[in-house]
Write a structure and sequence with these properties.
There is one protein chain. The protein is α/β, with parallel strands linked by helices. It has a single domain, classed as HUPs (Rossmann fold), CATH 3.40.50. The protein contains six helices and five strands. The chain has a five-stranded parallel β-sheet with strand order 3-2-1-4-5, with helices on both faces. The protein is globular. The chain starts with a strand and ends in a 6-residue tail after the last helix. The chain binds 4'-phosphopantetheine. The site of 4'-phosphopantetheine has 11 residues, from strand 1 and helix 4.
C-alpha cells in the first residue's frame, strides 16, 4: 500500500489543484491532501474552511483524505508514514520555488521523495491568489473553482468598488 501526500495552502482549492489530486489519486493507493500553513502567506480562509472546501471538491475520489497540519511537512510525512510528496507544476517559473522546497525537504528527511505532476495546459494560469484578486474586482472566475468554493468566496470576499 503506497500513500502519497499532496501538500499546499489550498486557500482556496482550485480546479488546478483538483486536477493534480486526481492524477495523484490514480497513481497511488492513497492520497492525503494536506492543508498546511505557508508562513509566507496570510490566509484568506481559515484552516477549517480550507479543509471543508477541499473535502467537498474531492468527494468523488474515494482514496483521498483531507487533513490539516501546522508544522513541518516532513513531520507530517512521518506521521502519515508516507515517503512521497506530490506537487503540481504549471510553468517553468514554478520550478525555482519548487526545487528549493524539494531540496529543503530532502535535507530535512532524505528518505522522502518529491514527485512533480505537470498540470493540464488549461489550468496553467490558475492560482488561488490570482482567482481571489480577479474575484475582488468582479472577474468571472466561476469556471476556475469548484461550486462550493465559488459560493464561499461570494460570502467571504466583498467586491471592491473601483
Ligand atoms: O500551496 P503552497 O503555499 O505553495 O504550499 C507551500 C507549502 C504549504 C507546501 C510549504 O510552505 C510547506 O511545506 N509548509 C510547511 C512548513 C515546512 O515544512 N517548511 C519547510 C519546507 S520549505
Amino acid at each position: 500500500m503506497i500513500r502519497a501526500v499532496y501538500p499546499g495552502s489550498f486557500d482556496p482549492i482550485t480546479n488546478g489543484h483538483i486536477y493534480i489530486a486526481e492524477r495523484g489519486a490514480a497513481l497511488f493507493d492513497e492520497l492525503v491532501v494536506a492543508v498546511l500553513v505557508n508562513p509566507e502567506k496570510r490566509s484568506t480562509f481559515s484552516e477549517e474552511e480550507r479543509q471543508i472546501m477541499a473535502r467537498e471538491a474531492l468527494v468523488h475520489l474515494p482514496n483521498v483524505k483531507v487533513k490539516f497540519f501546522e508544522g513541518l511537512l516532513v513531520d507530517f510525512m512521518r506521521q502519515e508514514q508516507s515517503r512521497i510528496i506530490i506537487r503540481g507544476l504549471r510553468a517553468l517559473s514554478d520550478f525555482e520555488y519548487e526545487f528549493q522546497l524539494a531540496q529543503m525537504n530532502r535535507q530535512l528527511a532524505p528518505e522522502i521523495e518529491t514527485f512533480f505532476v505537470v498540470t493540464d495546459a488549461k489550468y496553467s494560469y490558475l492560482s488561488s491568489r490570482g482567482i481571489k484578486d480577479a474575484f475582488q474586482f468582479g472577474g468571472a472566475i466561476k469556471d476556475m473553482v469548484p461550486p462550493g468554493v465559488f459560493r464561499r468566496m461570494r460570502e467571504r470576499i466583498p467586491p471592491r468598488n473601483v
